[in-house]
Amino acid sequence: MSTAAAPMSDPFDLLDVDSLLSDEERDIRRTVRDFLAEHARPHIADWFERAVFPRELVGELGRLGVLGMHLSGYGCAGTSAVSYGLACLELEAVDSGLRSFVSVQGSLSMYSIRRYGSEEQKQQWLPKLAAGEAIGCFALTEPDHGSDPANMSTRAVRDGGDWILNGAKMWITNGGIADVATVWASTEEGIRGFLVPRGTPGFTTHDIERKLSMRASVTSELSFADVRLPDSARLPEARSLGAPLGCLNEARFGILFGALGAGRDSLQSALAYADSRVQFDRPIAGFQLTQGKFAGMAVSLNTGMLLALHLGRLKEAGRIRPEQISVGKLNNVRAALDVARECRTILGANGVSLEYPPLRHANNLESVLTYEGTEEIHTLVVGQALTGQSAFR
Ligand SMILES: Cc1cc2nc3c(=O)[nH]c(=O)nc-3n(C[C@H](O)[C@H](O)[C@H](O)COP(=O)(O)OP(=O)(O)OC[C@H]3O[C@@H](n4cnc5c(N)ncnc54)[C@H](O)[C@@H]3O)c2cc1C
Q1: Does ligand 1 lie within 6 Å of residue 392's CB atom?
Q2: Nearest atom, ligand 1, residue 147 CA
Q3: What is the pLDDT of residues 292-335, one digit of tens each?
Q4: Whose CA is nearest to atom 25 of ligand 1?
Q5: β-strands 203-207, 190-197: how paired?
Q6: What's the pLDDT tens digit per position in 122-133?
Q7: CA angle 266, 330, 352 (to 5 degrees)
Q8: Strand, coil or helix: 195
Q9: Catalytic: which of 188, 355, 372, 375?
Q10: How many whole angstroms separate alpha carbon 391 and alpha carbon 393?
């Protein structure tokens, strides 16, 4: 008697989370997925191998409406938080580098201007950034200060009505291609943010090469040598470290959806492979050990999706707390990374080839695990919420 049955059509939606989405959210997801299937998916392994960011996609992403899509006004689409999360998920199902571009552009560069900028700064930059006519970056990390940005060395000093900026930033996504950098610096008055346009005298960038992760994304070092800025370059509403941390919370929200996309794509490719790969006279999908892997991965991704959706609804209700975002980033990035690695094992030797996506996703997710707050830092955030004690120092 045959025990073969038609496989489930969508192993990523075992729990029917789709039924909890609105028609509009499903439409946005479909539009982003279709766009990427045509313009990005066929080329992504090549971009990754050659370490190329597809700059030609930026204008198209602007026309698609995903740049700063969860912000309102100034040419932004003003969608729900969940729609933004779903777009991040579709982008990261192709590559974390593409999702990183959209996260940095919308949640770090544009959000910093939308939330903390002057009216003039918003008018000058947001419509162009939303349309993909300009690129932004967000510079917080330094060579000697990553998890502990409060101790940053980059310094801005008042000089008459101007500021003089000195220092260096490291590991900055989009840095070398950005038209405007949101740069965080310590001042006598505390930590402040400045908008530094490309070409400002004394401001130089240097792209980081030989990355084993995020190869389809530009990551750069930024240097500031006596960069003179008018006071109008300062973000007037940013008055402490809370400002950049507020931006990071926005980006982390996109990540906790996005990472699941890398997991989904890995799972789909491993399922297809296991269905066609025959060993010991049967498809490897029929072995119990392989099915145990698939079941574990599907449970992990499906529960991760429920968590993401719940956090999305909390965000839409204006009730989400930073430690809840930490729970989501911790859980979903770890889940996606475990899934990508497990899928690699199912592909056997083929799993180490760029012809298949799991190891590319796993390599990318190593960065996702570290940036926007490392796994350890988010663990401490949750620990502090549970105990009331800070264990950061
Ligand atoms: C591809 C990529 C893109 C990036 N893009 C950007 C960007 O656009 N803008 C930006 O500003 N930054 C960016 N970053 C930087 C990223 O945010 C930092 O790498 C991250 O904050 C960690 O800092 P670090 O690398 O200096 O590690 P460190 O802070 O030196 O940490 C090293 C290790 O020590 C652990 N550790 C540190 N403090 C503690 C503690 N108190 N308790 C326990 N463990 C601790 C960390 O968890 C980690 O495991 C990017 C990084 C990568 C890899």
Answers
A1: yes
A2: 29
A3: 999 999 999 999 999 999 999 999 999 999 999 999 999 999 99
A4: 146
A5: unpaired
A6: 999 999 999 999
A7: 30
A8: strand
A9: 372
A10: 6
